[in-house]
Design goal:
The structure is a homodimer. By secondary structure, chain A is α/β, with parallel strands linked by helices. Chain A contains 14 helices and twelve strands. Chains A, B: It comes from Streptomyces polygonati.
Chain lengths: 446, 446
């Protein structure tokens, strides 16, 4: 069997980061981000196209400068539970913070989604990027980077322990013998670690896929290490083909170094394809989008987000990039630190930094269907990804990709012609994790 | 318009407290408590009968002696989000702990359910009864009673503040003027109280009913006080007609003493009606249930639950009730303390206490449809309740009540012939809370 591309859909409602003009498009409903029927339609479109998953991002802090979709949106697990019963095969990946949740509650909610969906739940583990989130959870300061990542690793390990509370045959439910539960198959975790203390057991059993699939978005050293240790899917940072190649190789190598099969971590790059009947029409549509999203103040606010919702409008736009190193979080090597390093090395003004953020978002997948399919194949063959996390603007843009590009990928044997499985794990080619408390060898084994 | 009875349905899957034998009934699916289709069917049956709400209880601690439904069940908000899109009118009340959640996350999840359901969310605020839950949330000891209730009050106030983050007209989404959000209509709460610190704003707007409806189950002095201050629905403790009358009068009086309209707090008693074609057949069915649930060890474990999952089997069953006062939580006047007081005053053995718990669960609503309707009317006229929270065993038992008793109540003008509203508030006759940040008077006003 040849390797296949995995595809996920990543709906952004009225407009995510940089999509400043999307809400003004008459084809986008003004309440899309809080309309469950919008998400159900997206999920059904993804399932109709045989995509692996619907991917829902999240955040826990806003102010009035935040992207439209962030201001007013549904909580991902609540959202995906509602979507679950309107779909049968597509995976349901919810972003949730390991910094601002408790493992018992969160593990339980993911297990519930996993049961409700018949084994299609995924958890995108984030440590919360917005430092302002701390003040929504009783803290004066954001936990520092190493603490957040240490907690994230321990959190995932605890969640997995809780998900294994019941062995698969824990409930004989045998009326004749009067045995509903076999108590020997129920296990308390009794975890006491550096960041977390959780006794268990969890009050819910495992689903058909054993455990929800763990996604992560590792960029920094800590992030890549966390991904290599526990992630089964990665939402990769993107960039040039070379950057994507390097990232891919690095993650696979790190994963192997932890004794894991590198095939058991699927790397998704971000893709915002622009597809039209001809290459020229696609480039025209790309320019149109570029102009729709042309909002300097919006991009200035977006830049501020990487520095704890800092207000950059107080600085001279045409002076050198201001000294805001004190705002980049200690111990972190993401977002803010990278922006500062680039501004220094390239001697950029504040205005140039803002404009460069915009440039960064241009997609390598622009053109007629065949052109886009060619680019995707090129990137795939270059070992830059296992899958693409696709973001579109309007339903028409989704359809242009699904009806135009997907059939070509399918013809080339690069994308499935039917779902391999009813579970997210099954479709991603991931093994069902063995229950850590089970004594006898089980059939499902990694 | 004459006063109408409100009805809620309270599904217990494979069997809640005392329903030891339910899972053995061949009409009950062994996986009912984790089967979303079971809950969707219950919700649709409730909606078909024009009930006000589906009511989902919860807990965060188990051991192997816990009731079957508790061992392995779906988390209530995840569950009700999935149910929401399969119903249009029935309210969706989820139990959630104010002790073991953070206000930002929980307020957001309820607001999401409220949007997904079009204004039908309710929150049953509990402070977590099982002392063992503490160890699932990083604590060595359960927070004491006054702390839990103090936190609960503050938590509800914070949640309400977060739910008001956006004024109703905060999103002009006016493409011509290029204004998606009117920033003056977004409000941070900046709460810093005795138990909680939460800045806000919340990243989701208000639903058609303004805010989710607050339910509570006040029994103790602290519980009743909390209910009178913030609850809009109460799940009452039950007991004899006289006890229910006293409770009802007390809550309405306390509510008025806080300057609130006593009509704006709806008191639901628990009801487990047993309905059959004739009174005799219903009594036969009641005896059958009584025998099905005859499980001394199960009741012994249930007794232990009130004392922090204490194992009473180590004591002599026929000696006087053991001295376990040290296990009854400090400052609490619920469960355990009431059991000890009764055992002392009536000089009961351990065995007698266990048997008395069982007796307590007998329903006043047993008989042919007309008999049950008569009893319900008698209790309603005696000012014992505004509504009944109905628990049944099998789908057939639901149908016997819905097809037999509800039409009689309807004929007598005691129950609605159509939904008054699309929102839970509307159907319960509760006002839409005014946004605490709005400057101008709004139409919806309490």
């Amino acid at each position: 069997m040849s390797r296949k591309i995995h595809l996920a859909l990543h709906p952004y409602g009225v407009g995510g980061p940089g999509q400043h003009g999307l809400w003004k498009d008459p084809r986008v409903a003004k309440n899309a981000s809080i309309d469950i029927n919008y998400y159900i339609r997206q999920a059904q479109a993804a399932e109709h196209a045989l995509f692996d998953a619907l991917f829902i991002v999240d955040s826990q802090f806003i102010n009035a400068t935040y992207p439209a979709h962030y201001l007013n949106r549904l909580e991902p697990l609540t959202l995906l539970s509602a979507v679950a019963t309107h779909t049968k095969h597509v995976g349901l990946v919810a972003t949730a913070s390991s910094t601002y949740n408790s493992p018992f509650n969160l593990a339980r909610r993911f297990a519930s989604l996993d049961h409700i969906s018949g084994g299609r739940a995924g958890w995108n583990v984030v440590t919360s990027f917005d430092s302002g989130a701390a003040r929504n959870f009783g803290l004066d300061e954001h936990l520092d980077y190493p603490t957040r990542y240490g907690r994230a690793l321990e959190f995932v390990q605890v969640a997995r322990g809780l998900w294994d509370s019941y062995e698969d045959d824990a409930f004989p439910a045998d009326a004749e013998r009067d045995v509903f539960l076999d108590p020997a198959k129920l296990h308390a975790l009794n975890h006491a670690g550096e960041h977390l203390k959780v006794a268990g057991p969890l009050n819910i059993s495992r689903s058909p896929q054993g455990q929800p699939v763990i996604f992560q978005a590792g960029v920094s050293e800590e992030g890549r290490d966390l991904a290599a240790r526990v992630a089964e899917g990665i939402y990769a940072p993107g960039g040039s083909l070379q950057q994507a190649q390097d990232y891919y190789a690095d993650i696979k190598r790190r994963t192997a170094s932890y004794g894991r099969d590198p095939e058991h971590i699927k790397i998704f790059i971000h893709g915002s394809p622009v597809v039209a009947a001809t290459d020229e029409a696609a480039r025209r549509r790309e320019r149109e989008i570029f102009e729709e999203d042309d909002d300097f103040d919006g991009n200035l606010a977006l830049l501020g987000r990487s520095f704890g919702a800092y207000d950059f409008s107080r600085h001279d736009l045409d002076a050198p990039f201001p000294d805001v190193a004190h705002l980049a979080e200690k111990g972190g090597r993401t977002g803010a630190a990278r922006i500062i390093a680039r501004a220094e090395s390239e001697k950029l003004t504040l205005r140039q930094v803002v404009d460069s953020l915009r440039e960064f978002r241009r997609s390598p997948f622009v053109g007629a269907p065949k052109t886009v399919a060619d680019s995707i194949e090129e990137w795939f063959d270059a070992a830059t990804f296992d899958g693409i996390n696709l973001a579109f603007r309007t339903d028409e843009d989704v359809a242009a990709f699904v009806d135009g590009v997907v059939p070509i990928l399918r013809e080339r044997g690069l994308f499935r012609t039917e779902y391999e499985s009813d579970t997210l794990r099954g479709n991603l080619g991931l093994p069902v994790p063995r229950n850590q408390f089970a004594r006898e060898p089980q059939l499902a084994d990694d």
